[in-house]
Amino acid sequence: MKNPLSSFSKESGFHFSFEHLLLFWYHHYRKFFLLVTFIVIGFGIWNYYHYILAYHFTEDEKKQYIESYYKETLFQEKKFLSLVQSLESRKEDHQNVPVLKQNIFSNR
User: Fold this and answer.
1) CA angle 69, 72, 78 (to 5 degrees)
2) What are phi and psi of 104, to 5 degrees?
3) Backbone φ, ψ for residue 36 (5° rounding)
4) Residue 16 carries which DSSP code?
5) CA 106 to CA 103: how far, in whole Å?
6) CB-hemisphere CA count at 13 Å for 24?
7) DSSP assignment, residue 97?
8) Is the pTM of this model over 0.85?
9) Given a cut of 70, is residue 10 above it in pLDDT?
10) 9 CB-near residues (< 8 Å, 6+ apart)
11) Residues 15, 9: contact at Cβ < 8 Å?
């Protein structure tokens, strides 16, 4: 079986060489990494714009979000009120100064 690219390499004078590939990489790797960096930064900017700045809710999604936010706020308010109540009881406990019935420093 004949390789179809063998006639191309004979006509053009091109042949694959690992050494030439390494030399090409050695001379151009900085440009490659710079290009990849710009592509990644560009993708990040596009992602930020698309998902954060240009995002739009439909009417149903707005209603659903408002309802869930209201329920969550009520739930957090209940937790907050119970926490405040427990802190008030702790404050009262700390304000009561214990009275010592025995003098531990007396010589008995």
Assistant:
1) 140
2) -80, -10
3) -65, -40
4) -
5) 6
6) 7
7) P
8) no
9) no
10) 15, 16
11) yes
Nearest by Cα to 82 from 93, 90, 94: 90
Q: For the segment 74-93, what is each residue's pLDDT rounded down to a tens digit?
A: 777 888 889 999 999 999 98
| Tokens 């420093």 -> residue | 105
As given in the structure block, the two tokens for residue 105 are 């420093």
DSSP conformation class of 13:
-
**Per-residue pLDDT tens over the stretch 13-71:** 667 788 888 999 999 999 999 999 999 999 999 999 988 887 777 888 888 888 888 87
Tell me how far CA of residue 108 lies from CA of 102, 104, 105, in angstroms: 11, 9, 9
* Per-residue model confidence as pLDDT tens digits over 24-36: 999 999 999 999 9
Length reported for the chain: 108
